[in-house]
Amino acid sequence: MTAEEADTVVARFAESGHELDADQAAAIRGVLTSGARVEVLSAAAGTGKTFTVGALTEAWTGAGRRVIGLAPSQVAADLLQDEGLRAANPGA
Fold first, then answer.
1. Residue 84, SS3?
2. Total domain count for the chain?
3. Could you say which of 65, 76, 84, 85 would form a disulfide bridge with 71 (CB–CB 3.0 to 4.6 Å)?
């Protein structure tokens, strides 16, 4: 995606009442514009990773792309599924 398209995604969340904090918005912009086929988000618990990944999923699937989430536990995989991802715990 272009930087402008990524900015539109961030703005759309703000307009819907789900304003992203600066780190979440930066992560979304960075992932959407990186051109990479695989991305990893890592941060402390409670920082909004699951919501951020849900926002990325919405943006990617809206652009016709496929998103698969991998999580270190089944609980985390279930949370990703709640955000709309096809997710799995490969260690399970």
1. coil
2. 1
3. 76
Q: Which two tokens stand for residue 53?
A: 């990944």
Under 8 Å between Cβ of 52 and 36? no
DSSP assignment of 43-83 equals --TTSSHHHHHHHHHHHHHHTT---EEE-SSHHHHHHHHHT
Q: Which token pair is 39?
A: 């991305």
Range of the domain at 75: 3-88
Q: Say what the pTM is.
A: 0.80
DSSP letter at 37?
S
pLDDT band at 20 (very low <50, low <70, confident <90, very high): confident
Residue 31: per-residue pLDDT: 93
Classified as helix, coil or strand, 42 is: coil
